[in-house]
Request: fold
Amino acid sequence: MGELLGYLPDRYRGSPEAAEFQRAMQPWADRLHADREDLFAQLFTKSATWGLRAWEAALGIETDIAKPYGYRRTRIESKLRGLGVTTKAMIKNVASSFSNGEVEIIEYPREYRFEVIFTGTVGIPPNMADLTAAIEEVKPAHLAYAYVYLYRTWDMAAHMAWDGAAAYTWDQLLGGEL
Reply:
């Protein structure tokens, strides 16, 4: 925000009283500007902080202030993506937002089920409990589903010598990035 004095007409800028009054009001004007910017930040999930509570309340999500902002934003965005008629694309969007990677949805209509395949993640993605809650909320009640995880096989790690593999933990070899 600019100096208040700069907003005065020229005829008042020469007045010591007007100038002093503007200087005295400047801290309040700066604070008002900062508060306005902070309020606008709460209108968008990607920049909201203290406003996340309002988003969660509006969407019926339980607030857990112990969780980091990024985690809470993911749940809000997932819920927003899940509004409306449930489609394969919607379930894919919801699952992708939790897995931080590519997801494929395979439908089995005759069996009334679908599979969520984590194609962009090796191993089990984090935050599976919240993903399950989100899918349960958006999917039709009559459909069953299963998760399919991708793991590294011995054949995939065959190019590594044992002494090269010794630098990794078992979990890293099976599911982490090498």
About this structure: The longest strand covers residues 113-122. The first helix runs from residue 10 to 13. DSSP finds eight helices and three strands in the chain. The radius of gyration is 26 Å.
